[in-house]
């Protein structure tokens, strides 16, 4: 059984959003095109409380992009984004969301960020994604979404560690590239761990 896993395809990560990924909107038609080729489609959503401590707005003496120690973990400070129930947290209207079978919410603990769709960054909280996939007898996971060098990478690496065959749909992802080369490095790290890069046109 194979599943399409959509990572954080939300308004705030698209052009015009508070944490926009360059060309992030270009992946939406690609995703719509491949959705029907999968047995199951599951999506993750960043789902932050307004006071989430990964937001630069919660730290008077720090700016967006600064890295701090947050309860023992390195944390890049982001603009407020994907706040629960906000327009920014929603799927874009162009996405064929009716095809999504299940939604996983992550990042709802204000004290720890959650890049991966499977665990928070401290790996103490399990989102339930693995149990859901296991319950559906999924063996192969195809990943698309935002952003390549953060949530997509973390999700893919965890999926490999959990024993799935993992494929990254390269033309259905975009990255932040906070430091030039971050996206390339993320892809290399995923490939080194066993993630297979594919193009949407190759999926049957």
TrEMBL record:
The keyword Nucleotide-binding does not apply. Keywords: Hydrolase, Metal-binding, Pyridine nucleotide biosynthesis. Its EC number is 3.5.1.19. It holds the Pfam family Isochorismatase. CDD domains: nicotinamidase. Pathway: Cofactor biosynthesis; nicotinate biosynthesis; nicotinate from nicotinamide: step 1/1. InterPro entries: Isochorismatase-like_dom, Isochorismatase-like_sf, Isochorismatase_Nicotinamidase. Transmembrane segments: none annotated. One of its GO terms (biological process) is pyridine nucleotide biosynthetic process. One of its GO terms (molecular function) is metal ion binding. PANTHER family: LD05707P, PYRAZINAMIDASE/NICOTINAMIDASE. Belongs to the isochorismatase family. NCBIfam families: PRK11609.1 (NF008623). This is Nicotinamidase. It comes from Blastopirellula sediminis.
């Amino acid at each position: 059984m194979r599943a399409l896993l959509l990572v954080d395809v939300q308004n705030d990560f698209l052009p015009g959003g508070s944490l926009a990924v360059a060309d992030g909107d270009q992946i939406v038609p690609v995703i719509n095109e491949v959705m029907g080729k999968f047995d199951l489609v599951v999506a993750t959503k960043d789902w932050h409380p307004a006071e989430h401590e990964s937001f630069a707005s919660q730290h008077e003496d720090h700016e967006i992009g600064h890295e701090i120690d947050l309860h023992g973990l390195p944390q890049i400070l982001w603009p407020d984004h994907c706040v629960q129930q906000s327009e920014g947290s929603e799927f874009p209207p162009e996405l064929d969301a009716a095809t999504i079978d299940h939604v996983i919410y992550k990042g709802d603990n204000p004290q720890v960020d959650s890049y991966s769709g499977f665990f928070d960054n401290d790996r103490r909280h399990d989102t339930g994604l693995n149990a859901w996939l296991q319950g559906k007898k999924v063996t192969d996971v195809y990943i698309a979404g935002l952003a390549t060098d953060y949530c997509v990478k973390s999700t893919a690496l965890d999926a490999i560690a959990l024993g799935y065959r993992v494929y990254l749909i390269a033309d259905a992802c975009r990255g932040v590239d906070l430091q030039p080369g971050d996206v390339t490095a993320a892809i290399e790290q995923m490939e080194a761990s066993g993630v297979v890069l594919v193009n949407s046109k190759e999926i049957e």
